[in-house]
């Protein structure tokens, strides 16, 4: 029971922090204003790790490499802790663990995309004039706009978020299966 609780807590904490690091990189890539509440919160939560890394890993062409490397380092720590909780020696699985850490970052990114899409869809129904809508639209537009071109609107209802949700869920299944096959247990 202690192992299950520890895995749950580690998964929750590391997934939220990893998603914040990826969101930070994403916000910078789409050139989101740093003074909106979302950007400010993400920056405050991640500055302690990203700012020291930024001194040695500069950003190029709009890509915040320090945030991406921080997400990968966070993922490595997460995977090593998860393996240690199960009782397996992390050093014996090191090459596989690095691949699993990379897959974990992909999983965090996919989960972040799902949650942002769900939040945008809910707000578009409940409060389309919410101050968060422009931010959510700007974050999800690169993924939803291509789908809107191939998905017809049915009676004015945009089904592209549902299609994106299905595509991302399938990708999550593939990533999770790959990670499980490399470690012989789930992360």
Automatic annotation (TrEMBL):
Annotated transmembrane regions: 6-27, 65-88, 108-126, 162-185
One term under GO cellular component: membrane
Cited Pfam families: CCB3_YggT
InterPro entries named in the record: CCB3/YggT
Family in the record: Belongs to the YggT family.
UniProt keyword terms in alphabetical order: Membrane, Transmembrane, Transmembrane helix
Protein's name in the database: YggT family protein
Organism encoding this protein: Paraburkholderia phymatum (strain DSM 17167 / CIP 108236 / LMG 21445 / STM815) (Burkholderia phymatum)
């Amino acid at each position: 029971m202690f192992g299950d609780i520890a895995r749950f807590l580690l998964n929750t904490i590391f997934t939220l922090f990893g998603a914040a690091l990826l969101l930070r990189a994403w916000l910078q890539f789409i050139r989101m204003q740093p003074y909106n509440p979302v950007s400010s919160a993400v920056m405050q939560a991640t500055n302690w790790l990203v700012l020291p890394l930024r001194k040695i890993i500069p950003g190029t062409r709009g890509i915040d490499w320090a945030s991406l490397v921080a997400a990968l380092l966070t993922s490595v720590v997460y995977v090593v802790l998860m393996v240690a909780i199960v009782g397996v020696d992390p050093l014996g699985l090191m090459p596989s663990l690095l691949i699993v850490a990379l897959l974990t970052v992909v999983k965090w990114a996919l989960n972040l995309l799902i949650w942002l899409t769900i939040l945008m869809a809910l707000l578009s129904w409940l409060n389309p004039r919410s101050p968060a809508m422009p931010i959510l639209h700007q974050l999800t537009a690169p993924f939803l706009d291509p789908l809107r071109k191939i998905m017809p609107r049915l009676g004015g209802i945009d089904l592209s978020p549902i299609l994106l949700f299905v595509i991302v869920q399938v990708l999550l299944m593939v990533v999770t299966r790959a990670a499980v096959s490399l470690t012989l247990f789930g992360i």
